Every structure is written in C-alpha cells, then in structure tokens.
Amino acid sequence: MATRFEELIEALSAVDELERSKATSVRLPEALHRAVLLATELGMDESFTAATSRALRERMGDFVRRQALADHFTKFPADLPRLADVAKRRVSGSDHPGVAHSELIDEAAAWVEQRHPEWALTGAVDDTVDEVLGYVEMLAAGVGRRRRSA
Amino acid sequence: MPKGLVRHLVLDTEAASALLASASVNSKRATVILAIAAANGQRVVPTAVRGEAGWDRTDPAAADANRLIRTDDVLDRVGADRVAQLRDAVPVASVVDAAVAVAAERAGGSGGVVEILTSDVADLRDLSANVQARVDIVRL
Fold it and tell me: What is the C-alpha separation between B98 and B128, in angstroms, rounded?
C-alpha cells in the first residue's frame, strides 16, 4: 500500500502532466491577496491562479526533496556526505569564490555543521549549503578578517 | 526557485543504475546522493537512460530512486532531432549519451550550471561542447 508520502509524490507528478483544474476556496490575508493581484498586474505571473499554483507547487517540491533526502539518509547512513563536500559540489563549475578557495568552504562548513549537526537528517540541505556559501563569500571578500596594518 | 547559485543534475546510465542499488553500503550510490544533495535546481534522468539502466518507475524496488529523482527528460520529437544533430557532430557518441547532453541543454537553458554525472567522460565532454548550457562533467 502506498504511503502518504508516495501519494504526495504521485499527486505532484500528476500536476506536471495534467492540465485539469479544480475550484477551491482558501482564505488569504487581505494584504497578501492585494499583493498577489498587484504583482500579477506587474507581470509576476499570468494570473492570480497561476501565481498561487506555482507558489504551492514550488513549496511542495521543496518539501518532497527535503523529505526524500532525510528518508534516504535515515535508511542508508553510509551515504551521508560531508557538508563541505556538498557545498564544494554545489559551486563546482561556477564562478563562486569557493571554487578557488576550497579551504574557506571547509572552514565555514565545519562551523555551520557544529550549529546544525542534523542538517542532513532533517533534509535541510539547501538552506544549510546556502548558509555555508554565504559565509564563504563574506570570508573571500575579507569581511570579518583582521586587516593587516600598513 | 532556488536561491543564489543554481546547480542542475542529469544522470547517465551508470549513475541511474547506482541509484537503484539496494545494498546498505554502495560507494557509487553515495556519490550519486552527494550530487543530488548538491543540485538545488532541476534533477532529471533522461528516459533513454532509464530504459538502459532498467529503471521502471512502476517497480516498487525503484521507490527510493523515484523519490530522489522525480523528473524524466522525455525523448520527444524535438529531443530526437537534437540527439541526431549532436550525433552528427560527435559520431562516436551513443544515442543515450546524446540524450544526456540534450537533457543538460534543456535543464541549463534558463541558467545555472548543469552537472552531468557520468562514467563516460570523454564522449560527454565532446557532446557538451556542442550544447547551449554551462556544463560541469563529473566522473562517477
């Protein structure tokens, strides 16, 4: 029998394949409703419905990814990567300063991993890697480093 | 949309096969998982790769792989034309490798870096030189 999570994945996959829609009623904060209307007028999305559907789809896609990774690491703990390795792979082939200064990724990842030791088992991979890379950018730019006196 | 740096991932046949492995310890699967964890953009497997790797999404044994890579890059009419064009440019490349390159071009068309995780670095490198995307080829 499919679990609830499998049902969710199946439903989310069907979203990409089917165009059928279903009317539903949700209560939104009035200011959010007005903000979406204004953003739609300004070209964010083609309609209020499209904006709402896209936002929900992205949020559910993120949730499924987090849950799938967390489940995998629970089932196969030997597959758990080092945070520094994930961050290095994220920047590989890009212009990020971490490519030329991998030691900064090691430094930042060690610090972040101390603060979030459960980063992989909670599935919060993307947020944690973004945090590491944000620190690397600051370190590479010299933020927080003592300047040498002239 | 992911924040900041965007990294997409396309699996080749060996990577797809490794993801299907069910042993408690498998170093190739661990490498694929690292690539999946690092990819915050699109994560796709070409349908040609699935066919070659024996990845049947209806098979309960594929449930874990289905969760981690939900998107198929379908070899449709337009894709088949592109495969033919790429094989014309790189005649030694297989149809499956060319399908991987097409998937990379589609994934990276809107920006970001596309990782191709492959055991066939040489052919994929030649193919990638002909696609419109920023490709990072990683050996499995």
Answer: 9
